[in-house]
Design goal:
Length: 461
């Protein structure tokens, strides 16, 4: 169910598309369904339906692990009415799991237990005890046996005292669901079609109703406001930091780390405070990440050190433009590695150096204030402070090849396409636009002139 408006988000974006840990709320739910090997997913949208469907189509793409059907609920006349919209596309066999698109932290394991409780023929409700159950549907029991769910607004004083509530998640046989949905009416305090009314029908039909009660409130927590979203984000991040610590990763502070994607860490990795990891990042053995780094889509080799304030932004298109950093490399502080930056072993990239779509072979160095774009840099090259590749002529990008053991002085402009031959030296301040032979010293700047006894202009008196 993802039809709700989410008014309290005060946003133009449909609520279920807001991000938690870098993924849309709805995506979390879809990923959980995939984890459960769901055969079919029916997405019920309403507010912002087109935007929601487009986003889901994009993310699920051609790699869909389940059949995906979109249905729309317009207007929204209650949760029962929402699920009624799914009936035409829903198969008659199997078990239906009703999930909410705005409840992102539900675990697949919990749902497996719920499905097991359903056992193919029962109505299984996921429930929880809340000290303050205000607003939720109450689980009404007779002895131990569940009799009904009564919504807050329809509940008697006595029923309102019940602390066991319905989480919004249930599992039941598809065929029964279809039969019961056909019997819903809206004769209640909110004039809505309540999905929860089917509990009464099950009881009347002699179908067993079982409650699977859990204790973890985070798993059933919905997002209705920016505050709730931020709280669940913190809860998610706390959970992910604890997993990393358990694996042996040294986090300077588990509360000051954000993982918005997947972070794989080998042994003896340490991460200082305020780092953000996005997309797919993998850190090999002994990698050290300094404070305040933002790292997206990158593979970092054993023993590499990323100094503070480094920004690594690999592309996300299936790993093709990911950033690769070789073993023992030193990067930063204040370095920027963009899509397609590939650094070999022992490469050094220092402060205020930008690298884009470039390969640097083993031992190459660019330690200060430089730009390498669309370049192929050989082993042991030293690229001087303030030097750049001029890779863009206003219409096209061109490559610069700097062969092994070249020494590029400071403040050089290498105008691509250009090849600097192996072992060559480029004099500081040169602007080169022609290939240079191996081993040559190339200087391309005005000769120095010194005028003796030069008198500077001076103010008289
Ligand atoms: C529902 C349950 C209540 C339960 C609570 C848990 C009903 C009648 N009540 O409350 O017992 O304790 O969830 O959070 O089911 N939605 C639609 N279309 C609609 C209405 C809702 O798609 O017409 C979606 C919402 O976007 C949301 C979910 O259903 O994802 C739950 O809706 P919400 O209004 O939060 O729940 P209630 O109906 O108040
Ligand atoms: Ca409601």
């Amino acid at each position: 169910m993802a039809a709700g408006k989410g008014t309290r988000m005060k946003s133009k974006l449909p609520k279920v598309l807001h991000l938690l840990a870098g993924r849309a709320l709805l995506q979390h739910v879809l990923d959980t369904a995939a984890e459960l090997s769901a055969r079919q997913v029916v997405l019920i949208s309403g507010h912002g339906a087109e935007e929601v469907e487009a986003a889901v189509s994009r993310s699920v793409g051609s790699t869909a692990r389940f059949d995906l059907d979109f249905v729309r609920q317009q207007p929204q006349l209650g949760t029962g009415h929402a699920v009624q919209q799914a009936v035409p596309v829903l198969r008659d066999d199997g078990v239906v799991l009703v999930l909410s698109g705005d409840v992102p932290l539900m675990r697949a394991d919990t749902l497996r237990h719920l499905i097991a409780a359903c056992a193919g023929d029962k109505l299984a409700l996921l429930t929880i005890d809340f000290a303050d159950p205000t607003g939720y549907g109450r689980i009404v029991r007779c002895g131990e046996v569940v009799q009904a769910i009564v919504e807050q607004k329809d509940a008697s004083e006595q029923q309102r005292a019940i602390t066991e509530v319905y989480s919004g998640i249930m599992a039941l046989p598809a065929a029964q669901l279809k039969r019961w949905l056909a019997r819903l009416d809206n004769q209640n305090a909110q004039a809505e079609y309540y999905l929860t009314d089917i509990v009464k029908f099950a009881v009347a039909d002699g179908v067993a109703v079982v409650a699977h009660k859990i204790a973890d409130a985070l798993q059933v927590a919905g997002v209705n406001s920016p505050l709730q979203l931020a709280e669940l984000e913190r809860a998610w991040q706390r959970r992910s930091a604890e997993q990393l610590l358990e694996q042996g990763v040294r986090l300077a502070d588990p509360a000051r780390l954000d993982v918005r994607g997947t972070l794989e860490c080998a042994q003896d990795v340490s991460i200082d405070v305020n780092c953000i990891f996005e997309g797919r990042v993998s850190l090999a053995e002994g990698v050290r990440i300094g404070a305040n780094c933002v790292i997206s889509n990158a593979t970092i080799g054993a023993g590499a050190v990323i100094h503070p304030f480094t920004h690594i932004e690999g592309g996300s298109n299936g790993g093709k433009d990911a950033v690769e950093i070789g073993a023992g490399a030193l990067v930063g502080p204040f370095a920027r590695l963009r899509a397609g930056a590939r650094l070999g072993a022992e490469v050094h990239i220092g402060n205020f150096v930008e690298v884009k779509n470039s390969t640097l072979a083993t031992g190459a160095k660019a330690n200060h204030l430089a730009y390498l774009g669309d370049a192929t840099v050989g082993e042991r090259v030293n690229f001087g402070a303030g030097s750049i590749t001029a890779n863009y002529d206003g219409a096209f990008k061109h490559r610069t090849v700097i062969e092994a053991d070249v020494h590029v002085g400071s403040n050089c402009v290498l105008i691509a396409p250009l090849t600097i031959g192996a072992g060559g030296t480029v004099g500081g301040g040169s602007t080169l636009s022609k290939d240079t032979p191996a081993g040559a010293l190339s200087v391309a700047r005005a000769r120095q002139v010194s005028i003796p006894n030069w008198k500077r202009p001076a103010k008289s008196g």
